[in-house]
Amino acid sequence: MTELEKHSIGGVDSLSAALNGQSASCPLCFPSTGEPASLQNNVDTNSNKVEGMTKQKTQWKKFLEAVSTLQWVLSFLFLGLSCSILMVYLMFTSLWPLSTLYFIWLVMDWQTPERGGRRTTFVRKWRVWEHLRDFFPIKLVKTAELNPNKNYILGCHPHGIMSFGGFACFSTESCGFTKVFPGMQATLVVLAGLFRLPLLREYLMSAGICPVSKPSLVHLLSKNGKGNAVVIVIGGAAEALYSSPGVNAVVMRKRKGFVRVALEFGADLVPVYSFGENELFRQVIFSESSLGRRLQDLFKKIMGFAPCLFVGEHLAFLPYRTPVTTVVGCPISVPKRVTPTEEEVDHYHRLYMEALSKLFHEHKVSCGLSDSHKLRIL
């Protein structure tokens, strides 16, 4: 993202820089009463349903899930580059008028992503997303209500390699976000640079995805009415480099830009944790001082995202069939401050980190982790 900051699809490295100024198989997601015991019962009941459905899967169903997941992985990795090469190639063929007309349209439509984009319910409800959800499966869990008369900033952790939990829960209706949170509209914001790529930008906007730039956040939080849940993958590309099975690490100690924006618009903060996200791929983790890590950091600094050396369970790119449970925490009330002080930013940033840690430890066992697992905040 550039004035602000994507496997998002994406991270928020430039978000921190620009905003700081200093730099399932869950066919339907289920609500919770807010009581830990009730929530646990909901999780157990839903898990039993998932197990039953998994046993009944046909080979055809498994194939559809694998193909649906593979198409998303390949889209994530190669669609932007492929579309750019295609449009340039067409300029040197008899079809050059198509490419020319599109580039003219691109210039005229340049600001649309930062003005709310072009959300299409049809795309968000594609059946392919349900197969993607069922592959792992991915579940969405609610621990508290979100008031449709307010706006929220949801911090999604961890980034993982491709943020499957964040994408499925907030950029598609496969996990039933609008049913779980009536009156709310989720918008995942990702690397702004992705919206400069031809055709890919249209695909992203159709899913309701917007850039994580300052103008985009201003529009979503002040010019788009109420009931907006802006989802930011706080750790971004830097966090993706820590993604590995058994690791629960989030990068956010120095990332305060999202808190500053929340204060400027009086948007409540909501921690979100996707348990299992880091289990989907095996990644080569370079030590901090190694040449490999320095090259990754250099690439990230230039391009905005980090190249990860990872492998999945099948065909290299197909992730492991590990359940992903995305738990949406309780809102942290944030007052509106046109010009927030550093003390206020630090205060609410600390409250957010404490709430995220609490959310992790309250749900880690029910989401498949042992009681000994710790959350590292970097």
UniProtKB/TrEMBL annotation:
GO CC annotations on file: endoplasmic reticulum membrane
This enzyme's EC code(s): 2.3.1.-
Swiss-Prot/TrEMBL keywords: Acyltransferase, Endoplasmic reticulum, Lipid biosynthesis, Lipid metabolism, Membrane, Transferase, Transmembrane, Transmembrane helix
InterPro entries (UniProt xref): DAGAT
Pfam families in UniProt: DAGAT (PF03982)
Gene Ontology MF term list: diacylglycerol O-acyltransferase activity
GO BP annotations listed: triglyceride biosynthetic process
Topology of the protein relative to the lipid bilayer: Multi-pass membrane protein
Subcellular localization, as worded in the UniProt entry: Endoplasmic reticulum membrane
Main localization category: endoplasmic reticulum
Lineage: superkingdom: Eukaryota
Family membership noted in the UniProt record: Belongs to the diacylglycerol acyltransferase family.
Descriptive protein name: Acyltransferase
Organism (species): Perca flavescens
Species lineage: Eukaryota, Metazoa, Chordata, Craniata, Vertebrata
